[in-house]
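Quick one: structure for this chain?
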Amino acid sequence: MKITYICETSYHVLISILKILQTDNLKCEIILIDNMKDIDRIYDNLVSKRLFEKVYRVPKVEIPYFKRDIFKYRKMRKFLESKYNDEILKGRNIYIYNDWSSIGYYLNLKGIRYYLLEDGLDCYKRGGMIEQYYKKLEKPVYKIRRFFKYGVFCMGDSPYMYSLEVNNKNGLCINNKKIIEMSRKELYLSLNVNKQQMLLDIFLDKDHEITGLNENQEASILLTQPLYFDHIVKSEEIQIALYKKLIKEYGIGQIWIKPHPRDEIDYSKVFSECHAVLLPQGVPVELFEFLPDFRCKRLITAYSTAANGIDFCEDKVIFTREEIDEMCKTIENEMESEIK
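Got it. Here's what it folds into:
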């Protein structure tokens, strides 16, 4: 049976490639969701490299609001059936990273079984956003729906999930017998130089040169999180103010900014005064490990899971969700005071 990977970010594509390089399985297909950054280049390069038997592009579907009645999920299923083609999903072993996306909803509402892979690195650990989601599952209405398999279930709680693959089983916020462990670090270490270069060729624009540092230079890299997009903060202005604060207090030397794939803020305009270097958004930050002499003094981020798997920096300043919430509240209060 063919294996099909459903990917919404370049990181998903990267892990999918690493997994098929382990198996040399030529019967793998990949579905790219059209909201992915740099999808045109990634699609063309995947087709030319022939790593997958078939490469599909599927539009991003925005689910409209459905009233909260007993027919809500039937209406949602009917809507999604008009958007997705069953022919690319039937009779396949489906691997998906984000089953709380519209196509993940479709799989659940159609009762199509799938394998779930970790969306990021260690994102099922305690203290993250997924733990906040699980706290909401104690409601009686959800338990009743779950019993009758009516509705949408995700993040490791779907009855249609074969298994959930995580980087590390320790400290998870969920307790599920279907969890399996696969170290992402081991996937990277298994690559030889030729395979590393192949990955760089797929994701990195040939016209975009990323250089390392001379011995006498210092730099810091900021990994952003889409705080406004994910409804963590109330406005883009608060998110920008937060990152300006972090750069001012913790930045060393040249500032590099690597936007999160879902981050929609144009940082080239926001940080023009500090001459920040904007790193390509569609390139998984883990690939910078494969660039010769790419090193920096400090990494700064707001609880980015990717930071845990990075070795090209000497020092890491990683804030918890609670610390970020507190800083954002302070920034919001200061902004309100200025208005008054």
